[in-house]
Specification:
By secondary structure, the chain is an alpha/beta fold.
């Protein structure tokens, strides 16, 4: 594995498997491994060539699997899995926290007081989120949890766009689905991105889309940096079109210290730490070990990304699943 599991789950894994820790950039110890637990590594043909024919499964400690070449894994008969329940709560809370930080000028005032004691209240005047319209791009686990927090807790109106979401889901009637990204951008006061990264979502929010947003709106991105065109965002921010932005993810990561987004006082930035909580680590680590244990018992791992590779055995339910 290339990252540290939660201590309780690492001990659990060691009880039935030999565990070897490697760095994300050093895969020399991969040969003869049957399961690879990955964090930020790119799983491609080269990775699987090094691992060799013993590799049975790659498990992503987290929800995003954009760095896993799923077709290549499937072609080799290698199972690919993730832990989609792990980051839900932490990422949703972080997205809402960024909304408040931007809307209330919290970071701007904090910096002013820390740097020179400047009582900058008049420069940091914000607005209330109550009664505003929240636009959620990507309505999976995290997007729905953000909608729940903002709809029920802050009394925001919620609209969402997700072309992959099936119809007929049991969602609150107060949430309204729109069938184009453009419609959502025109309507929302706060836009929050929670889509997965794929060819369709790559830079789906570019200059044209940003200009469709309401003057004075807020953009939040806790999905993937590549979903938003950073150069376009800087251009629109410099023109004063948006009230501000809250950004947890960048393209590339880590970003350059010279990233122009860092120059804007109305942009709150964090270092891809939305899901970096003790609880999220435990949930993801539990999901990883659950699925490895299932594999050793000949049971289908719960969260397979490429289920067609599995030979057709029944799905098992993990004993310690916390949230779907």
């Amino acid at each position: 594995m290339e990252l540290s599991l939660h201590p309780t789950q690492l001990a659990r894994l060691k009880a039935f498997a030999d565990v070897v820790e490697v760095s994300a950039c050093d895969h020399r110890l991969l040969p003869n491994s049957e399961v690879a637990i990955i964090g930020s590594s790119t799983v491609d043909d080269s990775f699987m060539d090094i691992a060799g024919p013993h590799l049975k499964m790659v498990v992503r400690h987290g929800i995003g699997y954009d760095k896993v070449n799923v077709p290549a894994a499937s072609a080799r008969g290698v199972l690919a899995a993730n832990t989609p329940n792990g980051p839900t709560e932490g990422t949703a809370e972080h997205a809402v926290g960024l909304m408040f930080a931007v809307a209330k000028g919290i970071s701007r005032s904090d910096r002013a007081l820390h740097n020179n004691g400047d009582w900058a209240g008049s420069k940091c005047r914000g607005f209330e989120l109550f009664g505003r319209t929240l636009g959620v791009i990507g309505f999976g686990r995290i997007g729905q949890r953000v909608a729940e927090m903002c709809g029920a807790g802050i009394k925001m109106d919620v609209v969402y766009f997700d072309p992959f979401l099936p119809d007929g889901l049991d969602l609150p009637k107060s949430y309204r689905r729109v069938h184009s990204l453009e419609s959502l951008l025109r309507e929302a006061d706060v836009v929050t991105a929670h889509s997965r990264l794929d060819p369709q979502s790559y830079r789906m929010i570019g200059e044209a889309q940003l200009r469709l947003m309401k003057p004075g709106a807020i953009l939040i991105n806790t999905s993937r940096g590549e979903v938003v065109d950073e150069h376009a965002l800087c251009k629109v921010l410099s023109e004063g079109h948006l009230f501000g932005a809250g950004i947890d993810v960048f393209d590339p990561e880590p970003p350059s210290p010279e990233n122009p987004l860092f120059q804007f006082e109305n942009v709150v930035v964090t270092s891809h730490l939305a899901s970096a909580t003790v609880e999220a680590s435990l949930r993801s680590s539990t999901g990883v070990v659950d699925q490895i244990e299932q594999l050793t018992r000949g049971e289908r791992p719960t969260w397979l990304i490429n289920p067609t590779v599995w030979p057709g055995r029944p799905t098992a339910t993990p004993a310690s699943e916390i949230r779907k």
